[in-house]
Design brief:
alpha/beta, six-stranded mixed beta sheet, three-stranded mixed beta sheet, 11 helices, 15% strand
Length: 264
Amino acid sequence: MSSNYTTIRYSIENKVATITLNRPEVSNAFNNTSYIEVRDAFEKAGKDSDVGAVVLTGDGKNFSAGGDIQDMQKWIDEGDFIDEPIVTLTGEMAMAIRRCPKPTIAMINGAAAGAGAGCALACDFRIFAKTAKLILAFINLGLPGDTCSMYSLARQIGTAKATELMLLGEPISAEVCDKLGLAYQVTAPETLKEVTDRFAKRMANGSTAAYAKQKKALNEVFFRDLEKWINLEAKSMSASSKSDDFQIAVAAFLNKEQPKFTGK
């Protein structure tokens, strides 16, 4: 595993590894390199005996804008669309977070959209700034969703509510996330880092061996079909990216217009 990252920052302090999404100029939107580097960093932290807990956050105002819409338009222009290996990468990233044997904490400092929301949902804990929100708006791009977002939601809040949130594609405020049980804590933006640091240190100094056993049991029983989901997700996303609705939605987004879907 490489530590020469270009889209994230990786640091360790007081037994806490911090992975920072580091493309603030595009609100930490993911590209193919990002998926690989985040996956790599969580696997690295999981194997490091000097790490007791892992924090994931974003540089700047937002946690992550999700997939890069400019990339999507480029794929459309080139006739490549979204291929299955790309979607599989997003799933592998979420799976690396889910399967990390150390406690994982998403410090959500702003909007966490698309793949960003998927990463946050894959963590064990989510600490929100009051102004932060999850945006599971795949449907607004004519896409079913990736990064195991639906899977993670269904496991945590049930299929009925997960279906509602995914089909509506509306922003979910920190307050609503708290009511749904998705937030461990909600705090003021100015105290977010202090609150997260204090909690991460507490977890990092706990019984990491017992944490690992707990998480392994949870994964084997409640998340055992994650790889099957990732395969289904890849096929579904790839097929949907070839639709007229996807092309209409991407063009509308870039032109700051409302898409007029045709259902084709």
